[in-house]
Amino acid sequence: MQFKLFAAGLDSLLSEEVSDEDRDVEVTAGLGLDLIDVSLRPITFFVGQTGLMSALWNAPAELTPALQVRAAGSLICIR
To answer: Rounded to two decimals, what is the model's pTM?
Structure first.
């Protein structure tokens, strides 16, 4: 199993000096997952600054596991 996190355009929010090329990149982040050499469709967390702010304001107060797996009758949470 392999996790792949991706992000683009976040430097325009965090950096003081941003090139013109980076300024035009839309803010995006997400997660990809490979199971047994098969890539599943990536999950996009947010697209654009509005999506980022919505994700932050709507996030639960407690931590949410990235993956929950049932193995031999017990629940395994990967954070």
So the answer is: 0.62
